[in-house]
Design a protein that fits this description.
- It is built from 14 helices and 18 strands.
- The chain is an alpha/beta fold.
- The chain folds into two domains: about 300 residues, FAD/NAD(P)-binding domain, CATH 3.50.50.60; about 160 residues, Succinate dehydrogenase/fumarate reductase flavoprotein, catalytic domain (Flavocytochrome C3, Chain A, domain 1), CATH 3.90.700.10.
- Strands 1, 2, 5, 6, 7, 8, 16 and 17 form an eight-stranded mixed sheet that branches. Strands 9, 10, 11, 12, 13 and 14 form a six-stranded mixed sheet that branches. A two-stranded antiparallel ribbon has the order 3-4.
- β16 and β17 form a beta hairpin.
- The chain is elongated.
- The structure holds flavin-adenine dinucleotide.
- Flavin-adenine dinucleotide (FAD) binds next to α1, α2, β14 and α14.
């Protein structure tokens, strides 16, 4: 049985990106529907799980646009699409104000530049999942209420495929085998959150086995938007890189140790080794790089962060939700020993291998010769510290995948790029389902929430402008 509906705009996915697009559309007088696959009242999505910090590449998203452009370039090693970067840098400030007018509340955390807009109430400084009643959860519910007040409709249905006429997107089919719904629309906005929850797509595009990498999110982004857009000839960006962090390997069996604390501060200031005690990655490239490298090892469950007392008491305590003391309090494994040899014995790491790696690292650091190490060790922007002050620590690691950087390629108005050139008329994509801003291999984190709100807003404004023209 098929039911037909007719709207100006249909949005697929009710995370922060989809709800921003929907509300901004309704605000401009458009008739809007949102399709959301989750059935629970507070359906899970990465937006709801998030830490709620609106920032651009760990800078204040209201900074001067030229400065933000430079920050994005640096964070992504120059791989960000310049048009997308400029759109984000110039409109993020307005997006933050717009979200506040929608009812979102922010707190500012002291002088920490990237935490000037944290959705309130903020999550507490504790390990594990703690999203209920926190800023992102409250904000999503507020956006749903706003949409309903504006006459928008929310359907708890999975989008299945796009409707096409003469190369143009003219709607979405949703539902299941029993009940098929055709949503005819003048514009469709895909906001389904990425493909990190789809093991076969992750294997296909990244060569990564998701059974041995921790899904550090809701797992609700399963690549539906990409699949649907591809069928209409959409162009994809590089799909081979993800945003993530080093996590405790216990996260597979202990839900209290993920998504926080992330262990980047330990591994990127100290050292990361394999079971032979060898370094295999340039830790100075940061947590996203190390997590991507670990995920691609033949055995991604074989690595350890190695550090000393100075790192444990310094950077170990400096993260927003720090490993010290959060990891121990959550029951995460931390091996402690008075010597490196003893540490190796307790962990099962090869004794001589670990001793050699620590000695070589300490010597290169004290002589200012980190570039002679293999793999090379970058010293900036993260400052490496010697591993010399007992007790020594080893923490078993795994890679945690938060969301996929790559996805549907769009222009600066969130219009979906066509692989035949130009755009797919009537089709937009926003949030984590899109690629191009963060870059592929070696790219970097720009900020998922601000990207979602800003491009959600931009898509809606372009749709309204086009439909009213
Ligand atoms: C633990 C954690 C902490 C984070 N902290 C931060 C932070 O502090 N700051 C920051 O900037 N970013 C953070 N992020 C990243 C950020 O949360 C995401 O990048 C962002 O929320 C993505 O928003 P989205 O709307 O694109 O996707 P999502 O929020 O994932 O929403 C997508 C929605 O689409 C729905 N959907 C999927 N397929 C279909 C379909 N076929 N039909 C209908 N609906 C469908 C899903 O059910 C889901 O509800 C964090 C992420 C995690 C997991």
């Amino acid at each position: 049985m098929t039911t037909q509906h007719s709207f100006d705009v249909v949005v697929v996915g009710a995370g922060i990106a989809g709800l921003s697009a929907a509300n901004r559309s309704a605000q401009q007088g458009l008739k809007v529907a949102v399709l959301e696959r989750g059935q629970e009242e507070r359906y899970l999505c990465n937006s709801r799980y998030s830490g709620g910090v609106l920032h651009i590449a760990c800078h204040n998203a209201k900074d001067d646009p030229d400065k933000l452009m430079a920050v994005i370039r640096e964070a992504t090693a120059g791989k960000a699409d310049p048009a997308l970067a400029r759109a984000l840098a110039t409109r993020a400030g307005q997006a933050i104000d717009w979200l506040m007018k929608e009812g979102a509340k922010y707190i500012r955390v002291g002088n920490i530049v990237w935490q000037q807009h944290v959705l309130a109430p903020p999550r507490p400084i504790v390990a594990g999942l703690d999203w209920k009643g926190r800023g992102p959860d409250v904000t999503l519910r507020q956006l749903v209420t706003n949409l309903e007040k504006r006459g928008g409709s929310m359907f708890r249905l999975p989008a299945l495929e796009l409707m096409e006429r003469e190369g143009q997107c003219v709607g979405v089919v949703a539902g299941d085998a029993q009940q098929r719904h055709e949503f005819c629309a003048r514009a469709v906005v895909l906001a389904d959150g990425g493909f990190q929850g789809n093991a076969s797509l992750v294997k296909q595009h990244m060569g990564i086995d998701l059974t041995r990498v921790k899904t550090r999110g809701a797992g609700t982004g399963v690549g539906d938007g990409m699949r649907m857009a591809t069928a209409l000839g959409a162009q994809m960006s590089e799909l081979n890189y993800f945003y993530g962090h080093m996590l405790s390997r216990d996260s597979f069996t202990n839900d209290r140790v993920w998504p926080y604390p992330q262990l980047d501060e330990l591994g990127t200031v100290g050292m990361v080794v394999n079971e032979a005690g060898e370094r295999f990655v340039d830790e100075g490239q940061g947590g996203v790089f190390v997590a991507n490298t670990i995920a691609r090892l033949a055995n991604p469950l074989s690595t350890w962060a190695i550090l000393d007392q100075a790192i444990w008491e310094g950077p170990g305590r400096s993260a927003r939700i720090p490993a010290n003391p959060q990891l121990a309090q959550a029951g995460g494994t931390i091996i402690k020993a008075d010597t490196i040899g003893e540490l190796a014995v307790k962990t099962g790491i090869t004794v001589q291998g670990l001793q050699n790696s620590v000695d070589a690292y300490n010597a290169a650091l004290s002589e200012g010769q980190l570039q002679t190490l293999r793999p090379v060790r970058t010293a900036k922007p993260l400052v490496p510290m010697a591993i010399q002050k007992a007790p020594f620590y080893a923490v078993p690691l795994c890679a945690g995948m938060t969301y996929t950087f790559g996805g549907i390629l769009t222009d600066e108005n969130a219009r979906v790029a066509s692989s035949r050139g130009g755009v797919v008329e009537g089709l937009y994509a926003v949030g984590a389902t899109t690629g191009g801003l963060e870059g592929g291999t070696g790219g970097g984190y720009v900020g998922g929430l601000i990207k979602g709100v800003t491009f959600g807003m931009l898509a809606a404004e372009h749709v309204a402008q086009t439909l009213k023209a």
